[in-house]
Amino acid sequence: xxxxxxxxxxxxxxxxxxxxxxxxxxxxxxxxxxxxxxxxxxxxxxxxxxxxxxxxxxxxxxxxxxxxxxxxxxxxxxxxxxxxxxxxxxxxxxxxxxxxxxxxxxxxxxxxxxxxxxxxxxxxxxxxxxxxxxxxxxxxxxxxxxxxxxxxxxxxxxxxxxxxxxxxxxxxxxxxxxxxxxxxxxxxxxxxxxxxxxxxxxxxxxxxxxxxxxxxxxxxxxxxxxxxxxxxxxxxxxxxxxxxxxxxxxxxxxxxxxxxxxxxxxxxxxxxxxxxxxxxxxxxxxxxxxxxxxxxxxxxxxxxxxxxxxxxxxxxxxxxxxxxxxxxxxxxxxxxxxxxxxxxxxxxxxxxxxxxxxxxxxxxxxxxxxx
Length: 371
Ligand SMILES: *Cc1c(COP(=O)(O)O)cnc(C)c1O
What we know:
Layout: E1 12-13, H1 23-27, H2 38-55, E2 62-68, H3 71-81, E3 89-93, H4 96-107, E4 112-116, H5 125-134, E5 140-144, E6 146-147, E7 152-153, H6 156-165, E8 169-173, E9 192-196, E10 207-213, H7 214-217, H8 231-240, H9 251-267, H10 269-290, E11 306-310, H11 319-328, E12 331-332, E13 334-335, E14 343-347, H12 354-366
Parallel strand pairs: 1-12, 3-4, 3-5, 5-8, 8-9
Antiparallel strand pairs: 2-10, 6-7, 9-10, 11-14, 13-14
Helix pairs in contact: 2-9, 3-4, 5-6, 9-10, 10-12
Pyridoxal-5'-phosphate binds at residues 17, 70-72, 75, 97, 144, 148, 173, 175-176, 196.
């Protein structure tokens, strides 16, 4: 089909998932696919292989599993499937997504220890080490890479080294960074990396995926605390039935994701995408600072994915008014999510260019109703 015929979106989503996707990705959804047919399953297998290639050069050591649902379903599939009955998870939480992982562990009756350094501080590695020394029952360490709550980038390499020093299985929620920030999960010593279709790969929402160390995953048969979210069983079917999902798969979303993966390669891969995100994020912050906005985080903790801005001092500032005005002018931004400061967030992942950031800043300047 002629993709130019697809109508433009009324606004850009500056929200990190769902995000603005290209017409090419949207057009891929205009066919119906059979969920068990070879044509479709070949695409699934190609996607699985491409994900492993994106994640590491040691492709023979890892495998990927796709799982229906939003990103959190995948996090829950990992938490509920890879920890044995006598296991215990240490979750390093400095935001809502780390807290969500801890909440899942609690609901699943998995013994949990929480390392919570608050929302604006990086995790404390010394504290991590003493917790690992003091509590030999801990079997798994989990952390969020880009904590989308604030936009903070957590030190997953240093945490991985520490986890491995004490022989722990290492889980990373890289939901909002995988595909947008270069990483090799072999070097990072990650056993389970979790991400989803509608973040930096720039697909549409509907499923998530886990890239797992094969040696670890194969231990997990029969460990799952949920049937639908049984990570091992889902992997086992995909692996042995040539890309077959256990239950109905989101066929259109998967097809769009396949196109998004090809689009990522066409852009020049993860490094090119990372550079685009970085350039956009820097232009955004530079422009916003000129308008008088301050970022919540110092630059050295900030990811190139999403940025939290503090409300300006002015009493006349109302987020809702800014939101409505920007929406009418073609931009949707994000409210804040932290408890101790008034913030709003602007994401720059998706089909968004540096020029869009410059236009956004110009628009905010024109709408500077609160001064
Ligand atoms: C988006 C996101 C998730 C998953 O959120 P869903 O709404 O379930 O897709 C989990 N962790 C992080 C860090 C995220 O950014």
